[in-house]
Specification:
13 helices, Nucleotidyltransferase, domain 5, about 20% strand, binds 5'-O-[(R)-(carboxyoxy)(hydroxy)phosphoryl]adenosine, binds zinc ion, about 375 residues, alpha/beta
Length: about 375
């Protein structure tokens, strides 16, 4: 069964064709990152307008790259939420119209479920030869960590009549900013560029995190909830009224005059104290994510942890997860960097299992800005 996936929840217009939930035939992502760069964040109105322009060519390209005409598509899966409602609507309305016109089955997919499936899909499509299939190690705790979301879910799979189904239980989520949002906001404050995660990841390698330590984030109530806005404010206090603020202002005016700066140029414009601050901030975020994810796995008595979403591309985070897993006998699974950030292959893969289990979306399918995953 070949499923066309459509994803427009934030600032990527994406379409992909995936066969049997495990073979990626095409995976097209049109990023709007350049457009939002000058605002230091996603502008919802611009995002939805851009999705409108890109959706038709992106879907067409996904079919062309998969060498398929419409008749080769057996079902359509579209992200219904959570995300920016104007952006989601473009994909939902287009998906519904396409399914109706082609008389193909349609299913709505939770974007967060897509991120969980990016790990499963990577494992099936690209895993190292001889490596065991993931189903053997479910249940797992999944950390989904991106610009829009930070949450922990318990993932379980069951099989009946040869069809695999997945169920989810919510363990915790952010009460304010998502981790990726904190990276983006700190990068904006320090005028490092957008998106903030990749540039901070690279700059942090030149700084010493031990020189700028931040306290642990304490959570009252659920220990698997997150909060990153305090950390962002702590960075602001360390910058305001100091030479670091003047340095950020200089980078900002350089960018305004010259446009987006290459990484090496940004690095040269950062003093050692700025690099240390960036490294310290990243370490605090990573500490928090590692700490809560492993605590959740321990409490759920599972040995497997999935980490997905844009922030899962972070090199320090991968290093720390791998080291902690080795010490504790856990197995960690990340998607490839291309499947970490938003894409439609993960939506097609998640949709495949729903279609196999006879789930169908009717004409009432619509966009949901907030849509929790699991019970
Ligand atoms: O999954 P994604 O493409 O979109 C959302 O669903 O939000 O994630 C984008 C987010 C951005 O906030 C970006 O700064 C962050 O992921 N990100 C990173 C890295 N690469 C992307 N954060 C930390 N380190 C990275 N290497
Ligand atoms: Zn995402």
């Amino acid at each position: 069964m070949r499923v066309l996936g459509i994803e427009t929840s934030c600032d990527e217009t994406a379409a992909a064709v995936v066969e049997n939930g495990e073979r990626i035939l095409s995976n097209v992502v049109a990023s709007q990152v350049r457009m939002h760069e000058k605002y230091g964040g996603v502008v919802p109105e611009l995002a939805s307008r851009e999705h409108l322009k890109r959706i038709v060519p992106v879907v067409r390209e996904a079919c062309e790259r998969a060498a398929l005409g419409w008749e080769g598509i057996d079902g359509i899966a579209v992200t219904e939420g959570p995300g920016l409602v104007g952006s989601l609507l473009v994909g939902v309305v287009y998906g519904k119209a396409l399914a109706r016109a082609l008389s193909k089955p349609l299913v709505g997919v939770n974007h967060l479920e897509g991120h969980v499936h990016s790990v499963l899909l990577y494992n099936k499509a690209e895993r190292a030869e001889g490596a065991a299939l993931l189903e053997a190690v479910l249940p797992a705790v999944a950390l989904i960590v991106s610009g829009g979301h930070t949450c922990l879910v318990h993932v379980h799979s069951t099989a009946s009549d040869g069809n695999q189904a997945f169920s989810y239980r919510r363990l915790g989520q952010t009460r304010d900013d998502a981790a990726g949002e904190a990276f983006d906001k700190v990068a904006k404050l320090l005028a490092l560029g957008y998106p903030g995660g990749p540039v901070i990841d690279r700059l942090a390698r030149h700084g010493d995190a031990a020189r700028v330590e931040f306290g642990k984030v304490k959570m009252k109530g659920n220990p698997f909830d997150f909060s990153f806005s305090g950390l962002k404010t702590a960075v602001l206090y360390r910058v305001r009224g100091t030479p670091l603020a003047d340095e950020a202002a200089a980078r900002r005016s350089r960018r305004e005059a010259a446009g987006p700066l290459a990484f090496e140029e940004v690095r040269k414009l950062c003093s050692p104290p700025t690099l240390d601050l960036v490294a310290g901030f990243q370490e605090a975020v990573v500490n928090d994510l590692v700490g809560r994810a492993f605590a959740a796995a321990e409490s759920e008595r599972v040995q497997t942890i999935f980490v997905s979403g844009g922030v899962a591309a972070n090199s320090r985070l991968r290093e720390r997860f791998a080291a902690r897993a080795e010490r504790g006998g856990y197995t960690i699974h990340f998607p490839s960097p291309a499947l970490c950030t938003d894409n439609a292959a993960m939506i097609a893969a998640a949709g495949y299992f729903k279609l196999q289990n006879s789930e169908r979306a009717g004409p009432t399918l619509t966009a949901h800005a907030s849509l929790p995953l699991g019970t």
